[in-house]
């Protein structure tokens, strides 16, 4: 699985960073971004990062609770969204 955030819809409330601080962080612009496996903040809008299996539940809950409906969790192999606004 991998995850990306649509910053255009992010409200900056920080819920994702509370659920999964290893994966999400608020930048100085007040919006949430994903982090790389080596803890680097990926400031490019829509950047994608792999989700470690151990954090999948936290990332899934972030997507479910995200007020902006802007956290997208998808399968790496075929890019099908599993959790998030575009999931079936
Ligand atoms: S939970 Fe959603 S709306 Fe809130 S900061 Fe994270 S990505 Fe943005």
UniProtKB/TrEMBL annotation:
Gene3D superfamilies, A to Z: 3.30.70.20
Domain of life of the organism encoding this protein: Bacteria
Domain 4Fe-4S ferredoxin-type intervals: 1-29
Keyword set includes Metal-binding: yes
Keyword Transport: yes
Annotated source species: Streptomyces klenkii
Cofactors: [4Fe-4S] cluster
Keywords assigned: 4Fe-4S, Electron transport, Iron, Iron-sulfur, Metal-binding, Transport
GO molecular function annotations of the record: 4 iron, 4 sulfur cluster binding; electron transfer activity; iron ion binding
Pfam families to which the protein is assigned, alphabetical: Fer4_15 (PF13459)
Function: Ferredoxins are iron-sulfur proteins that transfer electrons in a wide variety of metabolic reactions.
PANTHER family: FERREDOXIN (PTHR39163)
Matches recorded under InterPro entries: 3Fe4S_ferredoxin, 4Fe4S_Fe-S-bd, ET_Ferredoxin
Protein name, entry field: Ferredoxin
């Amino acid at each position: 699985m991998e995850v990306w955030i649509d910053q255009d819809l992010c409200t900056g409330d920080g819920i994702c960073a509370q659920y999964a601080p290893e994966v999400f962080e608020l930048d100085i612009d007040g919006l949430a971004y994903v982090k790389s496996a080596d803890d680097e903040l990926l400031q490019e809008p829509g950047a994608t990062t792999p989700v470690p299996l151990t954090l999948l539940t936290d990332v899934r809950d972030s997507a479910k609770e995200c007020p902006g409906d802007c956290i997208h969790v998808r399968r790496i192999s075929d890019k099908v969204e599993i959790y998030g606004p575009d999931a079936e």
